[in-house]
Design a protein that fits this description.
About 30% of the residues lie in helices and about 25% in strands. The chain folds into 5 domains: about 120 residues, Topoisomerase II, domain 5; about 80 residues, 2-Layer Sandwich (Gyrase A, domain 2); about 110 residues, Topoisomerase, domain 3 (Orthogonal Bundle), CATH 1.10.268.10; about 90 residues, no CATH class; about 120 residues, DNA gyrase/topoisomerase IV, subunit A, C-terminal (Neuraminidase), CATH 2.120.10. It is of the alpha+beta class. The strands form 11 sheets. It has a 4-stranded mixed beta sheet. A 4-stranded antiparallel beta sheet has the order 10-11-13-12, covered by helices on one side. The chain has a 4-stranded antiparallel beta sheet with strand order 20-18-19-23, with no helix packed on it. The protein starts with 18 loop residues before the first helix and ends in a 12-residue tail after the last strand. It is built from 18 helices and 35 strands.
């Protein structure tokens, strides 16, 4: 098939090409731009272009850690105008994040003013805040003036910017990174600088070190908000080995004694990147919806530090059990994913292991060391050349003065007479008179000797790989000393702990056992009245509504509801609305479709068996434990199609099954002929020519079959031989006096 765009002729300078190719090429260009210039960090300095440009622009503004602050608007404006032609709001947001100590383990920007908080509030406008670099950021920039890295032209070719920063520590792991590109993403947690430096030092000594050894030095992430990592060591090792995995991170909490047996829980650290305000809202929602009945109240008493108060409903509640439930149902425990997808050498996206990332950093540090050493060597050679010329001038001072005073062009004369280079001659002519004193000559000779020694050391360094790695190790030790455990804010904040698998906590352990009466109307409005009231008592319902189910229960019970769609739904008796009003529609509590009716509602008894049957006359036995649903959507148990609906749900107590059809024929057969299943359509219970099943129940044959006659009296039939048969037979007409509604009860 010919693409219609292939037939379009060229007109002037326009180029016709297939739409598929045109879109494909342009989308690929966009994807590569997003991956390399926006979303993925460089493995060498751990920065994305916007962060790198922010730090470089602040350096150009001379905003050192010991200097003054400048308006954030000025900084973001310079970044946008000189290096990053994007929106100033995006640039300011990126800069503000670098100043947030709850988001960045080692902040790179020192902010003055409102830069946001852990509640999720946004920073103030850039015209209200000020910023400067931190010492950590200066460590990333150290060496830029010594040709440590390549520079490239900025977007309009008027200035130059660094391709990568020298980075004296592995910032990619120290501060972490996250981003979403086209078809790929990255998510790297922050780590501790001292541990990273120790791992790098070990990798220098043993380049083939195993991953198991490296995590002895880097046991796991170190989040700025602290918390406790409860991930097993084997899982952490696998994540670092493959570059993909996750870490379970919990809040730090303690039990605070209030006296007289009362106590409360105080949460002092929350997981990384969890907004405190959203966390409080979620906990309050758990209380309001009664999903955690043992939690009575939550309060936020935080100031500069985190202090969240969790108040139990009863002093008899086990604190560990309460926190275990909260960890499962709220963001007091999160799972932080690891996806170490980074740019190698700034060009190639790759999912790296921990060792790969550390090796990329060390190789980068070696390149920086060699470039700085060569740059220093060039400066030394230039200075030595100047010094040698000045020393010649001191040794022949009278003649040099004479040439300068008598010659119209003294430079070529000096160059010819003393065999000087142009650089040396120019340096002699630029000497000040005060430099001609004797002391200055001695200082020049001393400087000359020192530079010769330094040059010799640099030459040895450039020729010896061992000396290079030794120098890198010394630099890492110095970085460790400045930013390690003993520095301010350098101690590890996130600790490790081992926890077993969380066990399901029974409702009885969470809820105070109280008697209630469950009432459900014909229209599906449900409520729980306090105490065990008289079941014959007249109750109020909405106009046109009436009673359907009413039974005694306790707040610790779970209720099972069967819809005519064959799905079972589970309700907690403790979460039912109170009995003062008309209750609430049960459809607000579970996802029961509007077209489905309620077939049965009863208390769950673990281990009990139920008889399920459809209107088509198919059914089976099921264990109650297999019908309990864990979600609002319920659990499909009885499969029904078309006009067929779930019709019967009764306890399986007895040895025979009695069925009655819409044709009033009754069939009784042994219970042993009915299979037990967890889900399905079931087997045929009774055969019909017209209509379907009306009712079914299980009873004990020796005790007879009972029903209520039209007068409300219980009648029992013990001579049932006439209706006994095999499953799936048609049966015989019902006994005299059988109810006209074809129901056993």
């Amino acid at each position: 098939m010919t693409d219609i765009s292939d037939t379009v002729p060229e007109k002037g300078h326009e180029l016709a090409e297939p739409l598929r190719r045109a879109i494909g090429e342009r989308y690929l260009t966009y994807a590569l731009s997003t991956i390399m210039n926006r979303a993925l960090p460089d493995a060498r300095d751990g920065l994305k272009p916007v962060h790198r440009r922010i730090l470089y622009a602040m350096r150009e503004l001379r905003l050192s850690s010991s200097g003054g602050f400048r308006k954030s608007a000025k900084i973001s404006g310079d970044v946008m105008g000189n290096y990053h032609p994007h929106g100033d709001a995006a640039i300011y947001d990126a800069m503000a994040r670098l100043a947030q100590d709850f988001n960045v383990r080692y902040p790179l920007v020192d902010g003055q003013g409102n830069f946001g908080n852990i509640d999720g509030d946004n920073p103030a406008a850039s015209r209200y805040t000020e910023a400067r670099l931190t010492e950590v950021a200066e460590a990333l920039l150290d060496g830029l003036s010594e040709n440590a890295v390549d520079f490239r032209e900025n977007y309009d070719g008027t200035l130059s910017e660094p391709v990568v920063l020298p980075a004296s520590f592995p910032n990619l792991l120290a501060n972490g990174s996250s981003g979403i590109a086209v078809g790929m993403a990255t998510n790297i947690p922050p780590h501790n600088i001292e541990e990273l430096c120790n791992a790098c030092l070990h990798l220098i000594k043993a380049p083939n070190a195993r991953d198991e050894t490296l995590i002895d030095y880097i046991p796991g992430p170190d989040f700025p908000t602290g918390g406790i990592i409860v991930e097993p060591r084997e899982s952490i090792l696998e994540a670092y080995r493959t570059g993909r995995g996750s870490f379970r991170l919990r809040s730090r909490w303690k039990k605070e004694d209030l006296g007289r047996g009362q106590w409360q829980i105080v949460v002092t650290e929350i997981p990384y990147q969890v907004q405190k305000s959203r966390l409080i809202e979620k906990l309050a929602e758990l209380i309001q919806t009664k999903k955690l009945p043992i939690l009575a109240d939550v309060r936020d008493e935080s100031a500069d530090d985190i202090r969240i108060i969790l108040e139990p409903r009863s002093k008899n509640v086990d604190p560990d059990m309460l926190m275990g439930m909260l960890f499962r149902q709220s963001d007091l425990e999160v799972r932080f994913s690891l996806n170490m997808n980074v740019l190698i050498d700034g060009l190639t996206p790759k999912v790296c292991s921990l060792k790969d990332v550390l090796r990329a950093f060390l190789d980068h540090r070696r390149d920086v060391l060699l470039r700085r050493s060569r740059h220093r060597l060039e400066r030394i050679d230039h200075r030595l050349e100047v010094l040698e010329g000045q020393i010649v001038a001191f040794l022949n001072l009278d003649r040099v003065i004479e040439i300068i005073r008598t010659e119209d062009e003294p430079k070529p004369v000096m160059m010819a007479e003393f065999e000087l280079s142009e650089v040396q001659a120019e340096a002699i002519l630029n000497m000040r008179l005060r430099s001609l004193r004797k002391l200055e000559e001695m200082e020049l000779k001393r400087e000359h000797e020192n530079l010769l020694l330094e040059r010799e050391g640099l030459v040895d360094l450039l020729e010896s790989g061992e000396r290079q790695w030794q120098a890198i190790a010394d630099q890492l030790r110095e970085t460790r000393r400045k930013f390690g455990y003993k520095s301010e804010g350098g101690a590890r904040r996130t600790e490790f702990s081992e926890v077993g698998e969380a066990e399901d906590v029974p409702l009885e352990a969470m809820i105070e056992r109280e008697p209630i009466t469950v009432v459900c109307s014909q229209m599906g409005w449900i409520r729980a009245m306090s105490g065990h009231i008289d079941l014959e008592r007249e109750l109020k319902f909405k106009d046109g509504d009436g009673p359907r189910f009413i039974f005694h229960a306790e707040t610790t019970d779970r209720l099972l509801l069967l819809g005519s769609n064959g799905r079972f739904y589970t309700l907690s008796a403790a979460s039912l609305p109170g009995g003062r009003g008309m209750g609430e529609p049960v459809r607000l509590m579970v996802d029961l479709p509007n077209e489905a009716d309620i077939v049965a509602l009863f208390i769950h008894r673990p281990g009990r068996k139920l008889l399920l049957a459809s209107s088509a006359g198919d059914g089976f036995l099921v264990n109650e434990d297999d019908v309990v649903a864990q979600t609002r959507a319920g659990k499909q148990v009885l499969n029904v199609k078309g006009d067929v609906k779930a019709q019967v749900c009764r306890p399986a107590e007895g040895d025979h099954v009695a069925c009655v059809g819409e044709n009033r024929k009754v069939l009784i057969f042994p219970l042993s002929e009915l299979p037990e299943m967890a889900r399905g359509k079931g087997v045929r219970l009774q055969k019909y020519k017209d209509g379907g099943l009306s009712d079914a129940r299980i009873f004990t044959l020796a005790e007879g079959l009972s029903w209520k006659d039209p007068a409300g009296r219980t009648r029992t039939e013990t001579d049932l031989a006439e209706w006994l048969g095999k499953r799936a037979q048609a049966g015989r007409m019902a006994p005299r006096g059988f109810p006209r509604d074809n129901r056993f009860t």
